[in-house]
Each structure stands twice: as structure tokens, then as C-alpha cells.
Amino acid sequence: KSEGATLESGEIDDNVITPEKAEEVKLKARYPHLGAKPGGSDLLRKRLQKGQKFFDSGDYNMAKAKVKNKQQLPAVTPAEKAEITGDHIPTPQDIPQRKPSIVASKLAG
Amino acid sequence: MAGAGGGGNDVQWCFSQVKGAIDDDVAEADIISTVEFNHSGELLATGDKGGRVVIFQQELESKNQPLCRGEYNVYSTFQSHEPEFDYLKSLEIEEKINKIRWLPQKNAAQFLLSTNDKTIKLWKISERDKRPEGYNLKEEDGRYRDPTTVTTLRVPVFHPMDLMVEASPRRVFANAHTYHINSISVNSDCETYLSADDLRINLWNLEITDRSFNIVDIKPANMEELTEVITAAEFHPNQCNTFVYSSSKGTIRLCDMRASALCDQHSKLFEEPEDPSNRSFFSEIISSISDVKFSHSGRYMMTRDYLTVKIWDLNMESRPVETYQVHEYLRSKLCSLYENDCIFDKFECCWNGNDSVVMTGSYNNFFRMFDRGYRQDVTLEASRESSKPRSVLKPRKVCTGGKRKKDEISVDSLDFNKKILHTAWHPQDNIIAVATTNNLYIFQDRL
């Protein structure tokens, strides 16, 4: 099956590589630490974890308690919203809200 | 230039209709996620990321326009799924409709299955065109009459009313999938259906919601050993014991439910041998099958991977009988396509009514048709520019190198945000439904 690379008959060229392999070289140049098995566990596990959000009820309640003292809920910037674990204490705004049901599809309009 | 068509090589595709908003600012909820004709082709259903289903009905051909097939107009629309949050697993469950599958019609009502990542629902769509009037104990506005004021009796009578189409959820099949549902398929026995997620396939009875049988389980004991996932599954169109499922490694397994209760052992394994010298970092990713569809005859099945469409003869496991290049020019762009995640796009594919032509989508709102008999292929575009009523679609061509001819588009000019992932072909006629990001195009052959 042709990959798109052709060799002139009689031409000895060890450097001829298929377009696909050329793309691989490009990728490895940009990301030298990329694992050797792309279709393996890491990629698949990332796919299987879609939708996972992190929420710790302990942190949440502590944040709520602290906030009560300050009489004000801290504002959440979009950047903060993305990191729920670690240093960031989740607040009520961070917890995914149940989105309001949208009234009508524009396809039906 | 002739277009690819069914039965003849001179089908000319014409614009018929387009549904959806014109503005470029697309709300997430409006992204179309599935398109499906029912078994007669009279109804066309779409599902979107906002969890809504819109059903279009084909109008009866009018006598005024004998050369035009009926138009599809809105028949019913409803909210199928709502967003949920699983607090136990900290999992956000999208309301996006992954698949819609129609049940064959048995009575006046229509039934369809719609699914999101976790829950499948059976919807009944029924018409009401009569209303009873003349109750003895109720006024016409619904208020109850004082029984002591009733002096005569009358028999309530049905009177015609404006057609009302009602959609009601008849069954909810929940809590059977740990992973994300990618496929549902109704069995030819019309009693059961399967649902498949990344690692498991379950068999359901349409009447029973609190129980389902697990028929395939590829979850390894140690998740570190996970090497492949299930990407699509479908029942055979007329053998009720047979189904297939495809994997992220480019294989298809055919299973026979008569062989054992748990179909972990396949009856047939379809896999094309790979040339090891051609292997690259991208090989496995682009071999991942995004869709599998049986032909109407049941003799063949079609698979779609990132760059090709393959037709397999069920009697031959060693290699496909036909391979069609969808957009081979992307092979030299795989690095960028990996970086922008496009390499993971899941394109679907479909057969025409007599299995002579297959269709699939591509980028830049292009879609491709391959005529198996005449060995011809054509690239067409779904765009507002070529949306004049009954205007014939002009074939498009991508310039892969060298001098770009007039009317050709170069690979670097392709818009990778304009993807056609979902297409559907009317079961009998040459009518196709093509979904761009948020618009539904309907094309017909020129009569």
C-alpha cells in the first residue's frame, strides 16, 4: 500500500521517509518526552476519565465557614475555575451548576 | 462532472433545505451530535449537545410540484436528556445526545431510543387530532360541574382538533454503564437492543428497565494493562443472534449470542494486516474505528477510521474488500492534527438504500461519496453559498501540492473547525441529511 512516497528506480536514498513518519519526527521534535506508546494506557485512561470533576466536601465546607466570617463570597476568575484541587478551595460557584434547560433548538425555529 | 449516486453514475445532488441558525456564533447546545432517518424515511431525527431532539417529517408530495420530493418540516421537538452531576463519583454527565435509533413502526405511534453518556430513554411520539367534548360532569374549560345541576345526560363525542404531536418518555434505562455510552442498536427481533460503552456491551429488553445482561466485557483486571476500548457496536440487520463491535486498535469482532452468554470470545475477528515498516506514532490513533455499519443486505459491513472507509465481507476476516481514501492529504498534516486534537474526531459513515454508494464527512464542511459499482467518488460541500433551492452542487477538489487550479482549495486553507461528523441517507430514495456544526442540510437528487 503506497504511503505517497516514491523512489526513482535506481536511486538509493536512505533518508526517504513516508509523510506519516515525517510528521512523527516533527512531533517528537516538539514534544521530546512524549511516550512511545500513544495508543496505550495513558491516552485511553484520559478518554475514560472524561467528565471527571474534583470536589472535596471537607474543603468546600471549610471554605464556606471561612467565607461566612468575611461576609462575602470570593470572586472566581475563569482561570481559577479550571483548578478545583490543590491550592484552590472550591466555592459554591465552582461546583458545576445544573444548567438551565434550554427552551428550544434553533433547528426547530 | 457526474456525481456519485445509487444505481447510476449520473446522480446530480441538489440543495433542498437547510435548518438552523445562520449566525456564526454557535452556542454549545446547538452543536448537532446525531442524525437518523426512521425506517420509512418519512421522519428525520436530530440530537444535539443541549440534550434536545428535533424530529422532521417529510411532507406528502404536492401536486403543484411533481418534480420535487416532499420537504422536511418540524414535526416534534423535546428535551430528551438533562445535565446531571454524579456526586458519588464526582462525574459531570453531559446531556449531549450521542445516538438516536428508531424502532420499526408497529402501530400509529413512533418510537425511538435516545442516549447520552449514561442513560438510554425510549420515547413515544404520537399524534392527537381528536378531542372529546360534551362531558357530563366537566365544563369545556375543565372546571367540574356541580352534579346536582345535571338534569340530562349526553354522550361525549370526539371532535377534530389541530394536530398535536406529543413526545413522552416510556422507558428510562439507567445505571448500567460505568463508562461512556457510544452506541445503541435495536435488534431485528424488535424486542431487545444493545448499548455499548468504552469497555462493556449490555443487552436490554425494551420492556424491562431494571435489568440488563452484560454480553461483552473487555475491562482488564488491572487498568494499567488497558490497551484498547470499544468504539462502536451494531446488531446484524436480520440475524438477531449476531452483532459486531469495533475497537480503538482498528479491529472488528463479530459475536454470536448463541455461542455463550458472555461473548468475550469472538466468533470472527476482522483485522487488516499492517506493514510494520510503515508503523509510526500515529498508526494506532488513525486506525481507531469511529463507526461501524452493516449494509442493508447484511452481507457487508463498513468501518470508518481517520483517513479511510473500508468495506468488509463478513465471510472474509483477513482484510477489507474495498478501501476508500477520504482525505489522504491529511497524512502529511498528522502532527498539527494531533496538536489540535482533530486526529481524535469521530466521523460516521452510512450506506445508501441499495448498498451501492457509501458516504462520510470530512473537514471544511466537505462530505464524500464513494460509488462502489462505478468506482467513482465525489466531494461535495454543505455551505450557505450553494444553498439556492434546487441548485446543483458542484464537486469540490482539494489541491494536494503543486499548482493550485482555479476552484481548487489547498490543504492549508481547509477549515478544520468545520467538520461533518454526522450524515444520514434515506432508506429508499436519494435524499441525504448532512449535519455541519449547527446546521442540518438536506440534499436530494435532481429528478
What would your notes on this structure say?
Chain B: This is Serine/threonine-protein phosphatase 2A 55 kDa regulatory subunit B. Chain B: Belongs to the phosphatase 2A regulatory subunit B family. Chain B: PP2A consists of a common heterodimeric core enzyme, composed of a 36 kDa catalytic subunit (subunit C) and a 65 kDa constant regulatory subunit (PR65 or subunit A), that associates with a variety of regulatory subunits. The complex is a heterodimer of chains A (109) and B (447). Chain A is 36% helix and 0% strand. Chain A is mainly α. The longest helix of chain A is centred in the middle third of the chain and has 14 residues, at 57-70. Chain B is mainly beta. In chain B, the strands form nine sheets. In chain B, strands 1-32-31-30 form a four-stranded antiparallel β-sheet, with no helix packed on it. At the A-B interface, helix 1 and helix 2 of A face strand 5, strand 7, helix 1 and helix 2 of B.
SSE topology:
The complex is a heterodimer of chains A (109) and B (447).
Chain A: H1 19-30, H2 41-48, H3 57-70, H4 78-82
Chain B: E1 13-19, E2 32-37, E3 43-48, E4 52-58, E5 72-79, E6 84-86, E7 91-93, E8 99-102, E9 110-115, E10 120-133, E11 157-173, E12 183-186, E13 192-196, E14 200-205, E15 213-217, E16 230-235, E17 242-247, E18 252-256, E19 268-270, H1 283-287, E20 291-294, E21 300-304, E22 308-313, E23 322-325, H2 334-339, E24 349-351, E25 357-361, E26 366-371, E27 376-381, E28 397-399, E29 408-410, E30 422-425, E31 431-435, E32 440-445
Parallel strand pairs in B: 28-29
Antiparallel strand pairs in B: 1-32, 2-3, 3-4, 4-5, 6-7, 8-9, 9-10, 10-11, 12-13, 13-14, 14-15, 16-17, 17-18, 18-19, 20-21, 21-22, 22-23, 24-25, 25-26, 26-27, 30-31, 31-32
